Amino acid sequence: MSDTTTLKTFGLDELELLRGTQPGSGMDVRVNFPFSPSFPASTGLELEGGHNIVYFELDPGQQLGTHTDSPEEIIVCLEGSRVDVWVGDETGSIEGGELAVIPPLAPHGFHNRGEHTARFLGFFSDRVTISEFEEPVEPFGEAVLKT
């Protein structure tokens, strides 16, 4: 019997990031769903099982606008300080080395108030994620995105 196990690796700095914006809202994020074959800037590596991962960056003063995601999401702040986070009516902050849990379908977003780029990994509890934003996200031209 042959072993078909393959080690799948890549560096986060090697990811091709796609810029997502909402003109007039202050949303300006660089993003990649590295294991999603449906995402244009993907690594082309697919995960087995029920997982979906997002990597995103926010420059100082930029935000990832309010949106909902269909599954629960665990956010890991890899780098950054003074990043405001809102989930529903609750607000707080996150910085490098900290985690946050976002319940399914909870409106949430992030605003980098620090002086350096903030970098995040998000782990979704389902293989398919449907994200709904308040306004269309460019370059997609849609408010509902599926990965």
Automatic annotation (TrEMBL):
Domain (Cupin type-2) ranges: 55-121
Cross-referenced InterPro entries: Cupin_2, RmlC-like_jellyroll, RmlC_Cupin_sf
Superkingdom, taxonomy of origin: Archaea
Cited Pfam families: Cupin_2
The name this protein goes by in its record: Cupin type-2 domain-containing protein
Organism, scientific name: Haloferax elongans ATCC BAA-1513
